[in-house]
Specification:
The protein is mainly beta and 59 residues long. It contains no helices and five strands. The chain has strands at residues 14-17, 21-24, 36-39, 45-47, 54-57. The termini are far apart. The mean pLDDT is 87. The structure holds zinc ion.
């Protein structure tokens, strides 16, 4: 049998925002990443490709 390799995905962070265009730098510090801008387009949420933080549009 193959050994189970379960990973914990429950550490994902989300934030509600009031604009479809958001910027993210991972929160800065050691866990940060270069600041990027994200545009949700037709969606009401977007996930940062660097830190997987979820931005949810607050309606
Ligand atoms: Zn990020």
């Amino acid at each position: 049998m193959s050994s189970p390799d379960k990973k914990n995905y429950h550490s994902q962070v989300s934030e509600t925002v009031k604009s479809k265009k958001v910027s993210c730098n991972g929160g800065g510090g050691a866990l940060g990443h270069p600041k990027i801008y994200l545009d949700m387009g037709k969606e009401n949420q977007i996930i940062c490709p660097y830190c997987s933080k979820i931005f949810i549009l607050e309606l």
